[in-house]
Amino acid sequence: MLTTQLRQIKSYPTYQLHAYTRSSSSAAEDMFRICILETMKWLRSRLSRFDTLPEQIMLPEPENYDLLSFDMLQSFSLSIGFNISVVFIESRGVWSFELTETDMGENPGTDRERPPVNGRTFRTEISFMLHNACVEIGIRTICSEPSDTTAPCKVFRPAIVKMLAQNPMIGLRNEYEMNGQPLDITTRSEANRLIDAVQDPKFNIPVVIAAEAPYEAEECHEISAADVKALLSKHMAALKGYGLDDIQLSLYGLRPADELSSVRVDISHLGFETKLANKDHTISEAKPQMPEKPAVSITDEKADRLRTFDYQRLARKSVGYAFICFVKEDCFGIFNNRMDMKLQCGDVIIIDHNTVIERFPYSVSSADFDEFYCRIKEKVLSLPMRNTVDFGNVVFGSDARLLEIKEKKKQNITIEEKCDLLSQENRELKNKIRDLEQKSAAGNQTSDELRQYRKLLRESEENAAQLSASLNELEMRYRKISDAFYNSASVIKFYKDKAEAAAEFPTEISAVAEWAEREYGEYIEISSRAKSELKKYSGSLDVSTLCDGIYFLSGYAKFKTGRIDKQLLDLYAEHSGWEVQNCGKEALKIYKSDYTMNIDGRKLLMDQHIKYGIKSQVLIRVYFTWDDEAKKIAIGYMPGHLPTVRNST
Question: In what order do the strands lie in the sheet with 348-352?
Fold first, then answer.
């Protein structure tokens, strides 16, 4: 029996752009609205052959942006022969769009026609992030196809890029404005600014440098030795001005003649040593040797620059692909010194991620300017493919949906709704893993990222199981203690809150400090030293246990301020057996500097700590003190062990 064989899929980015709206008098929220409306206008143009259009995309035209309120925006998904997905998170200022379609081929009906590739799909992702003064923009197209596909895939820039760049109220920029004009680098400050941008790791736009062309070849006249004598004979008066009499000149076969002032002649090879410091010019007393009489070149005083390729036309075609820069010869030295570029007149150089990836000398571009233009344009338009781009704060597709789920989990929702959100989160994480596996098949994904998202999936599933188990435990505890404790409702609320808090524990040590200050900043403050130690810590660590310890300290702060009683504090401690202990007096005395932290310019002594484990593999310590001025727990060191004194109390 014959069966259809399934093939592994690979994915890789083709077009990619990270940019910002340019500085404008328009409010950032207005620019955000215009970006969304331009995208929907672009989408409607793609669907122009449809008889009816979905109501979700029937928004006002961009020029009528004032008619669009955020209440009109919503997250939605459509499947109408291709898939459309939009995520809008008003609280985060995020709007993310995704269009997935099958390959339709290229240039149908022309001699450049390419038929569709079986199994190939394109996913165009457009995302906007609202900031205080601008909108951050991310646009990319992902190609997915069977891993054994050999048909070429070209980079196509979505038309929305030019629509945004040409809209007078927004425009695009990334250090420089993307307006289709070349950058003229004519001064040292302009050269240094460009180099600073290129050397910035976050600068993702390739740069094409068109160096100023060389001068036209100087017209040279070769003159024989006999001609030299004739010319110098005519130039006799000038030579006499340097102290040469007729006898000395006669040694060279020269006779007095009229001065010929219209030519310049290099006479250094004749062996004269002249001193021009004063009017009494002298000549060396050494008997002059009979010189060789080589040919002499006489050149014109001025020359024009040669033609360069049409970099201005390339700039117009490269909006959203690269910056095209014309560099004057006066600035070559700066590039050569700071980037070791060895820039020469007429060079065309492509730079990407602070690396020269292509160099064309003037002899290559000038051989056929039209052919070279086509060649360099094709190279520039292919630069985004499979490139590494830092999209900053922009979130696409699955990441936007995961962020939306996270925001919904913070809302006051039922347990059933929370479980449903966790199921959605699991699906999105699985989609993320699938995408990464496809990128890995294309050789564009590291195993570390793949392990990271698999870990997130496991933890999400564990959190869901933990939440379910916690709910069951709450029900059992409620039945047992409802009649025994007058505050049973408080106990149940604690376990519910604890389960929800545990579901939000970070999984990476680098995120612990930010999470603690964000979630428990009312009760806890963390010194810069503690944050630094967290970043430097390289040992094995159960991050969830450390977070549980910080959660306990937030409860201890509530206890210190009288907000909860000892019975409720014991519930904070029971999971990991936390207990506040005093640091040894001798250790505090001998290692006082180690136990001292700085909080807002104030020095505080870490005289207490909590601990978990006794072996280095699982050991956790959090050193702190009570900041009576701020009424908070001040954490000064974690998660390692500070020095102690044996047998100290």
Answer: 183-185, 323-327, 207-211, 348-352, 355-360
> What is the dihedral sign for C-alpha 165, 169, 170, 172?
positive
For 641, phi then psi, to 5°, come to -105, 130
Q: Which residues contact 287 (CB under 8 A, 6 or more apart)?
A: none
Alpha helices in 485-591 (DSSP H): 488-503, 512-520, 528-536, 543-560, 566-574, 585-590
For residues 596 and 604, the answer to whether their CB atoms sit within 8 Å is: yes
The DSSP code sequence of 235-250 is: THHHHHTTT--HHHHH
Q: Which residues contact 202 (CB under 8 A, 6 or more apart)?
A: 390, 392
DSSP E strand boundaries for 246-376 = 296-298, 323-327, 348-352, 355-360
For the stretch 494-548, pLDDT in tens is 888 888 888 899 999 999 999 999 999 999 999 999 999 998 988 888 899 999 9
Are 318 and 324 within 8 A, CB to CB? yes
Please name which of 113, 110, 137 lies closest in space to residue 22, comparing C-alpha atoms: 137
Task: Report the C-alpha dihedral over residues 582, 584, 589, 591, rounded to 10 degrees.
Answer: -100
Tokens of 428: 């999105």
Number of other residues whose CB lies within 10 A of the CB of residue 420: 14
HSE of 637, CA atoms in CB hemisphere, 13 A: 19
CA atoms of 45 and 594, how far apart (whole Å)? 66
Distance separating alpha carbons of residues 578 and 573, to the nearest angstrom:
5
pLDDT tens-digit readout, 560-598? 999 988 988 999 998 888 999 999 999 999 999 999 999
CB 43 within 8 A of CB 56: no
| Residues present in the chain in total | 649
Tokens 């160096």 map to which residue? 211
**Nearest Cα to 519, choosing from 367, 379, 410?**
410
E-state strands within 107-262: 121-130, 135-146, 173-174, 176-177, 183-185, 207-211, 221-223
Angle, helices 543-560/566-574, rounded to nearest 10 degrees: 170
Q: CB of 642 within 8 A of CB of 595?
A: yes
Asked if 596 and 583 touch (Cβ cutoff 8 Å), the reply is no
Q: How many CB atoms lie within 10 A of CB 205?
A: 24
Chain-centroid distance of CA 152 in Å reads 27
- Asked if residue 11 lies in contact with residue 436, where contact means CB atoms within 8 angstroms, the answer is no
Contact predicate 80/51, CB 8 Å: no
Two structure tokens written together for 150: 């050999």
What's the CA gap between 93 and 86, in Å, rounded? Answer: 14
What six digits make up the tokens of 203? 């600068």
Report the candidate in 436, 440, 507, 502 with the shortest Cα–Cα distance to residue 473. 502
CA 598 – CA 532 distance, rounded (Å): 13
CB 144 within 8 A of CB 445: no
Tell me if the pTM is above 0.85.
no
Cis peptide before 639 (omega within 30 of 0): yes
pLDDT bin (cut points 50, 70, 90) of residue 273 is very low
What CA–CA distance (Å, rounded) separates 428 from 432?
6
